[in-house]
Write a structure and sequence with these properties.
GO terms for molecular function: DNA binding; transposase activity. With about 140 residues, the protein is mostly helical. It contains 5 helices and no strands.
């Protein structure tokens, strides 16, 4: 059951949300003939969801790393463009304006981004193949 369908059956006068009140609300909701239930995902669906969540995490990490990189070099009066390719090009041209340590830190972040992009590419290759396999099994 979806939680939003159970919440109307929780007693408003009671002390709010706790395990006992939630259990009572679930029991009350289950007895209703109009109640809709969520289907249980099979292992393939759960695995695909895991793959998508992991890939999305890599994308968010890549964005966060680029933003961190922009913030670090902006403290040295180097304004970084939004485009990731332009940022790499700009860094290769203007790295002489940064202290040697900062150049190393920026290089490390760019290497980290390369690894993240490799992971994303690997997941992109894996997704369509898996989709075909699932479709073939379900047909």
């Amino acid at each position: 059951m979806v939680a939003k369908f159970v919440s109307p059956y929780r007693m408003a006068g009671k002390s709010g949300k706790n395990d006992a009140n939630n259990a009572q609300a679930i029991c009350e909701a289950v007895r209703r003939p109009h109640m809709r239930f969520v289907t249980v995902k099979d292992e393939n669906q759960q695995a695909m969801q895991c793959l998508h969540r992991t890939r999305q995490g890599f994308i968010e990490e890549k964005t966060a790393t680029y933003n961190r990189l922009r913030g670090l070099i902006s403290e040295f009066s180097v304004i970084a463009p939004q485009s990731t390719d332009a940022l790499r090009h700009m860094f290769s041209e203007q790295k002489s304006f940064l202290p040697l340590q900062v150049q190393q830190y920026v290089h490390d972040l760019l290497v980290h981004i390369d690894r993240i992009e490799d992971n994303i590419t690997e997941y992109d290759r894996f997704c369509p193949a898996w989709q075909k396999q699932i479709t073939a099994v379900s047909d």
